[in-house]
Amino acid sequence: xASSVIVGxxxxxxGKGKITDFLAERSDIIVRSQGGNNAGHTVVxxxxxxxxxxxxxxxxxxxxxxxxxxxxVIDPEGLLEEINYLHERGISTDxxxxxDRAHVIMPYHKVIDxxxxxxxxxxxxxxTTKKGIGxxxxxxxxxxxxxxxxxxxxxxxxSKLKNNLEEKNLIxxxxxxxxxxxxEEVYRDYIGYAKKIKRYIRDTTVQVYDYINSGRKVLFEGxxxxxxxxxxxxxxxxxxxxxxxGGVTVGTGIGPTAINxxxxxxxxxxxxxxxxxxPTELKDETGEWIREKGHEFGTTTxxxxxxxWFDSVILNYSVRVNGLSNLAITKLDTLSGLDKVKICVxxxxxxxxxxxxxxxxxxxxxxxxxxxxxxxxGEEISDARIYEELPINARKYLERxxxxxxxxxxxxxxxxxxxxxxxxxxAD
Length: 428
Ligand code: IMP
Description:
This protein is an alpha/beta fold and 428 residues long. The chain has 13 helices and 20 strands. The longest helix has 22 residues, at 154-175.
């Protein structure tokens, strides 16, 4: 049995797509367990860049099996766009499977996502991707959601859509004063989507279980990041699913004993999109410099990401709540050229130093980072192929991070290409 989970250890956008692609080469099956097309994964293969949102990054390997698990919320229109995007680039989706238990994102979810966000006071806006993710998960927990298995049956779908739309149109019209959504139009569109995606639908819980039991290597690909987890993230500035490692079990239907390794993907600095406190945020030219050099603009929304120094309070929290066994450090190359680099080792609040990430955002907003300063490295590092080829100061920086959290670094990413990766020790 060999299965590994990849999780984002910060606020998402850690470069999980590239690390997944790298480890996918060493795996047989790649599975997504949560989120939807709010995620954005960029993978560079040779001269080609691929942007994926919903489909696991493993799809770029023709012989790998890719699964979208029951915990994912699926926008069929977005899914078909992504399938077409891959087909146009000559990539087959014959090995793609989608859970019959996954919930479907409906047009009213997207409309309500936008209307709710617009109605929030500007200070309280979450900065959602407006893909309908939150409202779809709300219907799931409220037990009125429409699942893929419902979409596959015209009669059931018709009746569930009718019930849902009656209520959603009341909300859309009466609360938000917006235009109602037409039943027949949605019904027709979605039955059309259903016909096109039918060939991919399976009971993926059985597939994943059988693959694990038959000794195949399964890689669970996380989306978003630990601090965007609905329970353990910086609530309410979070997504509506469980990006932490525990989300893999509920999102794919396997038990925790089936997981062998949890690889935390950590950017060599910190970024976040959307609102909410961010203790190590750099609102100066260094932050701007990192944003430009690191191309820190959202894959899904194009929004500029907020940038800051590395925060080991966050990493230690991530190690704990995910049970991280290995680290993959990404975008180390972005920091090349800085005179000095800083690592936050604690927060000062009311004259005390704390090292546990606080639950209260009001507390977090009052935290001042305590930094350790280290010398930077001037040289570009993307040509390094073994650890020893990295500048001594870059190595010291990595070793300090690994020491602080007591987890070994297995992979270092020093550029977007597959080849720009240093594999130090076995992670899969
Ligand atoms: P939602 O997931 O669209 O509901 O957005 C909720 C919050 O999660 C917002 O702050 C988004 O910017 C953030 N978010 C969602 N997906 C991602 C991601 O893949 N990377 C980084 N942030 C994300």
